[in-house]
Amino acid sequence: MTAPPTAILVRSHVLALIRSGRLGPGNRLPTERVLCETTGAPRRVVRRALASLEAEGLIWRHQGKGTFAGQPAEPIGVLAAEVNGPSHPIEVMEARLCIEPELAALCALRCSAEDIQRMWALARHQYEAEDDDVIELWDSALHRMIAKSARNRPLQTAFALLDEIRATAEWQDLRALSRSTRSLGESRAQHQQIIAAIAARDPDGARAAMCAHLMARHAAMEAALVALAGEAAQAFRAEQGTDDNQGAEHA
Amino acid sequence: MTAPPTAILVRSHVLALIRSGRLGPGNRLPTERVLCETTGAPRRVVRRALASLEAEGLIWRHQGKGTFAGQPAEPIGVLAAEVNGPSHPIEVMEARLCIEPELAALCALRCSAEDIQRMWALARHQYEAEDDDVIELWDSALHRMIAKSARNRPLQTAFALLDEIRATAEWQDLRALSRSTRSLGESRAQHQQIIAAIAARDPDGARAAMCAHLMARHAAMEAALVALAGEAAQAFRAEQGTDDNQGAEHA
DNA sequence: AAGCGAACCAATCTGGTTTTTGTTCACCCC
DNA sequence: GGGGTGAACAAAAACCAGATTGGTTCGCTT
Fold first, then answer.
1. How many Å apart are CA B44 and CA B110, to the nearest integer?
2. Spatial distance between the Cα atoms of B150 and B100, rounded to a whole number of angstroms
3. How far does the CA of B44 sit from the C1' of C25, in Å?
4. Hey, what CATH topology would domain A7-69 get?
5. Element at B68 (helix H, strand E)
6. B77-248 architecture in CATH?
7. pLDDT tens profile B136-189
8. SUPFAM superfamilies annotated for this entry (chains A, B) (predicted)?
9. What superfamily does domain A75-239 belong to in CATH?
10. Which member of B99, B121, B138, B178 has the greatest number of CB atoms within 10 A?
11. Nearest chain A residue (CA) to B78
């Protein structure tokens, strides 16, 4: 790297790390000191680059903890996830299909003007992103934004629970699988519909749009699941039942 | 203490500690070894006394942690406490209206025959009860049964959260108030409709019936709330603002 | 004046140690 | 032999000191 250690360079370096590093949104990035060493930039420049990334919502930092990809996990969500324990992807999808449309409707009724502005900003960021992982990032950020703007604590807690489950590791590859079965543009158009309905203060429209969006993803996920089940069956046939079958009962 | 160090003595000693020791239910009692020293009893006796107290629900113990007065704090309880504080009764009702109809629909799809039998039994118990409080008890038991039979963990957790909130003290009088504004028979008829739809494996019917049921209670609760607000206004006018108003801001 | 390096601060994590309840064992008295 | 007794051991949680990490400030250089 003979180029001057400008903030742009550090930024792209970190972005590359995020992208290549299997960004399970809770993924931890190298420390600032390490970034200084690897990029050759002074810490001030590194910090500036990280600050801009944080402002854009791509990463978050916490003193003594580290720098992480994605959005910080709400304590209420992890607590709820602990209470809930493990659950099947289909169950989670059903629950989302139950809760998020209502959240969208409430959001249309109650969100502020600046909430709507932020939603449009999130949608625009998603539009500008190229990488699939980054798109997922903006997607979940938008859903979280809608949930927050609905101003209903119990439902938001339920959403945080689902969001936390979805952030788990085993969901990452599942989403990666389901991504291949859907068109990337479709999701974006649906998002725009949702935000448009919210901005028009149309709760029924927002509910319907969110419902359609989730149903599409639900279908994609189910397709991915059967594909995965097929793989598992193949593996099972290959190994001929040498291990326990606790994870695949009557699937 | 010239009396023999029997379990009774230790028991009364601990009880005195609990009573005099300002037992904020999470209060911590002395360790077993300390109790041995102070009472002169062998550890075995102390443990037996503590075990009986624990069996009676007066205390609870945990390895490595200690012995505490009252009941252990369930995670779902602390979650509910976290959510309950800042959330308005209307919000909780909205959340129920979002989640429980879907639970009823899923229940209609998935519950077993014996689940249905148990629901009918619960409804019959509610029919046979005379006291209003007992009726409420059977009511919540039925709702819990439906939630459990829906076989969807995240939604069931969300329901448990709402149920826990509803069990809080401030909800008790609110329900007592709202009870006067509705007819007791109405709720029973609605319950029968719900169970009938579930028994008929009719998810849409179950969803609609549950929705109607909750809407009726929602209306009763709103009426109770305005009545309560009126009382609060009266009280406020009577006292002319001598105390803090933290509990009634812009109601 | 702006950038840089270093040191320092505060919050967190990490590893080992201690405390506390739970369990087991050999022993003693009736 | 049955039941009680004391001690030691096991397991889980709390506790504490040191290292780690993001956040901040201070001189210094260009």
1. 50
2. 10
3. 14
4. Arc Repressor Mutant, subunit A (1.10.10)
5. strand B66-69
6. Up-down Bundle (1.20)
7. 888 899 999 999 999 999 999 999 999 989 888 778 777 777 776 656 677 888
8. GntR ligand-binding domain-like (SSF48008), Winged helix' DNA-binding domain (SSF46785)
9. GntR ligand-binding domain-like (1.20.120.530)
10. B99
11. A79
